[in-house]
């Protein structure tokens, strides 16, 4: 496994985001760190993917075709209560509340970074634990922080 990644339990991660660029980046970061990844382009594809044995985490955002993202979270968690669900959120209190009420087990704030996504995976080892929040991205030396 690359980059000193932690041991894996054989689980799979499903990435479901409306933005193709975000889907691709998150999938690349996860694969590069040694995770098995399924990229879903809509709620129907995610529904099929999370039904497969070994799927343990869904990373999604709020706005999805054809269902609203939080409705997708609610539906998938009702079928798979053991499924970890990380919702990408803007940082607004309303986003966090809605995500948690819908069944999110973790939150990750925009703008997404490789470090935040990998930290998210480390924090979601137990889908039944309290919702985790991925750490804030730290500005790199010589770069001003950006707002999302």
Automatic annotation (TrEMBL):
<dbReference type="InterPro" id="IPR001789">
    <property type="entry name" value="Sig_transdc_resp-reg_receiver"/>
</dbReference>
<feature type="region of interest" description="Disordered">
    <location>
        <begin position="125"/>
        <end position="148"/>
    </location>
</feature>
<protein>
    <submittedName>
        <fullName>Response regulator</fullName>
    </submittedName>
</protein>
<dbReference type="InterPro" id="IPR050595">
    <property type="entry name" value="Bact_response_regulator"/>
</dbReference>
<feature type="modified residue" description="4-aspartylphosphate">
    <location>
        <position position="61"/>
    </location>
</feature>
<dbReference type="Pfam" id="PF00072">
    <property type="entry name" value="Response_reg"/>
</dbReference>
<dbReference type="GO" id="GO:0000160">
    <property type="term" value="P:phosphorelay signal transduction system"/>
</dbReference>
<keyword id="KW-0597">Phosphoprotein</keyword>
<feature type="domain" description="Response regulatory">
    <location>
        <begin position="12"/>
        <end position="125"/>
    </location>
</feature>
<dbReference type="InterPro" id="IPR011006">
    <property type="entry name" value="CheY-like_superfamily"/>
</dbReference>
<keyword id="KW-0805">Transcription regulation</keyword>
<feature type="compositionally biased region" description="Low complexity">
    <location>
        <begin position="130"/>
        <end position="141"/>
    </location>
</feature>
<keyword id="KW-0804">Transcription</keyword>
